[in-house]
Amino acid sequence: MILLLSVPSVWALEVGEQVVSSCPLNDCDATLSLTYLGETSLSWDYSVDGIPFGGISGLDFDPATGHYIALSDDRSERAPARFYELALEVTDEGIEDISVLRTVNLKYKTGKSFYRRAVDPESIRLGADGNVYWTTEGSRVSGLPTQVKVADRDGNFVRDFEQPDGFAPTSDRSSGIRENMAFEGLTFLPSGNMIAAMETALYQDGGQASLRHGTLSRFVRYEPTSGKPTAEYAYPVSAIPQRPLTSPVENDNGVSEVLALDEHRLLVIERSIASGFGFTIKVYLADTNGATDISGIESLTESHNDIVAMRKQLVIDFRALGLTPDNIECVSFGRDSEGNEILVFASDDNFSASQKTQFYAFRVNQRPH
């Protein structure tokens, strides 16, 4: 058994080893115990029916079929914006096979596929109603809103959620979303409500994370039937953990996905990149209990002392476990070949020859419910 240590490791986690985070946030009911089941990857040039398979930014499990839906963040540039249906064969020996079963194009109300750069897909979840719920980051530059959108299983438009006040893009950067840093994560709570997670701060809420300080990201609670936001919480994004080693400099840290454990506890992936070093992936257990509803607060920089942010504690550090993660943007519960609950992570290869679509699997021994 390995107790989590947030330090670089000179060894690599082996299949069958356990990773345990005991009593996070001083709550032993929140203990997370996992068994590592392995990693596999697809090369950047893997294709399906002549269309590049990549940019996987969202993943969710369908218990009715035992398959997964996986969202590509292709902005209808290489092919129409789309999601896939996947079969993953996971055993105690590792991830044995990945099969792409179906490709589904996402569509406008008119039934046409999305035009080039009209959406920036990032996260996807399957609802109890059978529909798929997905996020687009929009675009500050193009004036496109970040949204939660709903489609049926064939990609047909169903409806859009309302955008919260203060999220609309602005040309002068006085408020609203940053380019390519908006609704990055999405999850259903057991009640059926949803949390949509911003990657980083809105302009009016402060700067992005740096090597010296973190920032505050807004997590929006939605009632999915009406599509209306009902609350917002401030999530404390950590400072950038690693300096860049080469030029041109690429260095940031932000939220890349969320996954509900129960009505108030979430797993939150923070994804950081440092040029010349690579990706640092840390998973936190975060809690909305006791956090201030900030939906009525226009600017967090002006009200910082008046709010209580979500609490969080590190539960998985991929590099500390001796793993070398790529650009992890997905996490979902699932089932292995014996029906045991597993936790699956996947990466977005950015359609880049220097990256790969990577899958990690862990068996869940204990977790909050």
Describe the overall structure.
- With 369 residues, the chain is mostly beta strands.
- The protein has one domain (2-366): Tachylectin-2, Chain A (5 Propeller).
- 0% of the residues lie in helices and 46% in strands.
- It is built from no helices and 24 strands.
- The chain has strands at residues 2-3, 18-21, 32-43, 47-48, 51-52, 56-62, 67-72, 82-91, 94-105, 121-126, 132-136, 147-151, 157-160, 183-188, 194-198, 215-223, 228-237, 251-260, 265-274, 278-287, 311-317, 328-335, 341-347, 356-366.
- Strands 1-2-3-24-23-22 form a six-stranded mixed β-sheet, with no helix packed on it.
- A hairpin with a 4-residue loop joins β16 (215-223) and β17 (228-237).
- It is globular, with a radius of gyration of 19 Å.
- The two termini are 22 Å apart.
- Residues 51-351 form the Phytase-like domain.
CATH architecture call: 5 Propeller
Spell the H/E element sequence: EEEEEEEEEEEEEEEEEEEEEEEE
Cα-to-Cα separation, first versus last residue? 22 Å
Could you state the CATH homologous superfamily?
Glycosyl hydrolase domain, family 43
